[in-house]
Design a protein that fits this description.
Order of helices and strands: HEHEEEHHHHHEHEEEHEEHEH
Distance between the termini: 22 Å
Number of strands: 11
CATH architecture of the largest domain: 3-Layer(aba) Sandwich
Shape: globular
Radius of gyration: 19 Å
Strand content: 15-25%
CATH topology of the largest domain: Rossmann fold
CATH superfamily of the largest domain: HAD superfamily/HAD-like
Helix content: 40-55%
Strand order of the largest sheet: 1-11-10-9-2-5-6
CATH class of the largest domain: Alpha Beta
């Protein structure tokens, strides 16, 4: 048993220490000590994108997700925006309801994704690759406070960062580029569009479909099949997510030793806190920053004394 002093130091230094919830402090403390003791060469980071790397809300307004960046953009037709909103109103309540199991939700979520993709592909005028950057600029999507600092520090320390997203990969990459964190250590695995070579119009999506409940080894398709194999010496993981499905994103990592799971609980606090505390080691309740991640990096990257 190691001293819990470090854990309390980290929590106490957070900008919102009252937002931190931990079910088993002893187990979390052991993981943090072990991850820090092995240093940067043994660590990899896996993060969700929407409402994890990015903010859930800003100034009282919900921020755009990667799908929302397109669905609410003035650069697409009003007909498409209306259809996308109809889907959201139908399926989002299913996504967040506490009265259905994950297995019960999965068919509905797949249906939501497939219909969303169908509407994008058939959108008129056609959705073009070249318009995505402009859509990002016009959106409300923004990184969490100090997330850019954390990603830059990981890059400088050579820590691989996997952005594993059930969103739209082309949009995710555009946000990373606009934010200045499309860095060499960052890998994106997501739902990527396919475009017509001549006109650069969307014609489809690459398989397999990645949704919020299969974001693990099922998402590591042919183009990325060696990702975790290439990192097999990095047995320690910091995992970041904002949904229960995100808590399984480490499935597929070869021989993990310590997996520290940090969950961002952005809404419906009373409904979901208990199950979040079961799924994640640390739960941050309505904390729109990456302060905790940076505090962990402070200790991990500190010069040996």
């Amino acid at each position: 048993m190691v001293s819990s002093k470090l854990l309390h130091q980290v929590i106490g230094a957070c900008s919102k220490p009252d937002s931190v919830r931990i079910k088993d402090e002893s187990a979390v403390n052991e993981k943090i000590h072990s991850i820090i003791s092995h240093g940067a060469p043994a660590l990899q980071v896996i993060t969700d994108f929407d409402a994890t790397l990015t903010r859930y809300h800003l100034d009282g307004n919900k921020c755009d997700s990667s799908y929302g960046i397109i669905a609410t953009s003035p650069l697409v037709s009003s007909d498409y925006r209306d259809k996308a909103m109809e889907l959201y109103k139908k399926y989002y309540p299913i996504e967040v309801t506490p009265t259905m199991t994950i297995q019960e939700k999965i068919p509905h979520m797949i249906e939501w994704y497939e219909k969303s993709h169908e509407y994008m592909i058939s959108c008129q005028p056609p959705l073009k690759r070249s318009s995505i950057q402009d859509m990002v600029k016009l959106s409300t999507a923004t990184l969490r406070d100090n997330a850019k600092t954390a990603v830059e520090r990981m890059s400088q320390a050579g820590i691989p960062l996997l952005v594993l997203s059930a969103g739209i990969g082309d949009v995710v990459q555009a946000v990373l580029q606009a934010s200045g964190i499309d860095l060499p250590n960052v890998q994106v695995i997501s739902n990527f569009m396919q475009f017509d070579d001549a006109m650069e119009n969307i014609v489809g999506f690459k398989e397999p479909l990645i949704h919020m409940y299969n974001k693990n080894e099922a998402a590591i398709h042919d183009d990325n099949s060696n990702y975790f194999k290439d990192l097999r010496s990095r047995h320690n993981i910091i995992l970041l997510g904002d949904s229960l499905g995100d808590s399984n994103m480490d499935h597929g990592v070869a021989d993990p030793k310590n997996v520290l799971k940090i969950g961002f609980l952005n809404a419906h606090f009373e409904q979901h806190l208990e199950e979040f505390m079961t799924a994640f080691d640390i739960v941050l309740v309505d904390d729109q920053s990456f302060d905790l991640v940076n505090l962990l990096l402070d200790h991990l990257l500190a010069p040996a004394r």
